[in-house]
Amino acid sequence: KAGVTQTPRYLIKTRGQQVTLSCSPISGHRSVSWYQQTPGQGLQFLFEYFSETQRNKGNFPGRFSGRQFSNSRSEMNVSTLELGDSALYLCASSLVQGAGNEQFFGPGTRLTVL
Amino acid sequence: AQRVTQPEKLLSVFKGAPVELKCNYSYSGSPELFWYVQYSRQRLQLLLRHISRESIKGFTADLNKGETSFHLKKPFAQEEDSAMYYCALSGPWNTDKLIFGTGTRLQVFP
Fold it and tell me: What confidence score (pLDDT) does residue B92 get?
């Protein structure tokens, strides 16, 4: 079974631009979560989607948004990029939503904002 | 507030030595606790979770609700155990949201 895939793997943007990252969960998985990983803040929860609905959102500004499609694929968007948005963005999927579930992580998208 | 604390950034041991990676948590309720591991150039992956009460690759972790701890232990470290280890919690029941600790890098020397 193919794992979680994320595209693109690397991105370089400049301040003020916007960016869209994509995540394809494992086939059959319906829950998708996003995390931001930085050296200073570690792994921080961004959002969680299940059945095309955002079920949970982390403490990030409104510039960070996302969505989930009917095939469970998910995208996240960051508008008006800031230098501090440079990070590794990880997507994770699980079969169903619920604490205790194993989450499967993708390789991440490395975003660099110049 | 929900929080996971891993006090050690780096833990270095020799092969065959016992290992204990510490994890303390703060959560008002009954969380689910996990250990995730990231080997060099690999994805973050689940090592073990409290709900399964299993031993993976010789690692075990016991949830101590009184001390709000979920320390990861292995009696005899192997070189292939060298990796970044993250403790995480999840809760309430209807969410996948994980709160991670800052991670501990385990180095096992030959």
Answer: 73
